[in-house]
Design a protein that fits this description.
InterPro entries: Hypoxia_induced_domain. By secondary structure, the protein is mostly helical. The chain is 95% helix and 0% strand.
């Protein structure tokens, strides 16, 4: 169980970095792409970070028991 949670946590952390880097690139390019994608990418990043927090909590609980 702990191994599975650790792998999922690692994948979710990589997803956060990927969404963040995509957002930085879109922001740097500006223009229409920025207007279209900036808010969506920010919302996606927040959602993925929430998943990371939940997985981290579950991993901490798994270590406790």
């Amino acid at each position: 169980m702990i191994t599975v949670l650790s792998i999922l946590l690692g994948a979710a952390l990589l997803a956060v970095v990927g969404v963040l880097m995509t957002g930085v690139v879109v922001f740097a390019r500006g223009g229409e792409a920025n207007r279209r994608w900036a808010n969506r990418l920010m919302n996606l990043r927040v959602a993925v970070q929430a998943v990371v927090v939940l997985l981290l909590g579950a991993l901490m609980l798994a270590h406790k028991f």
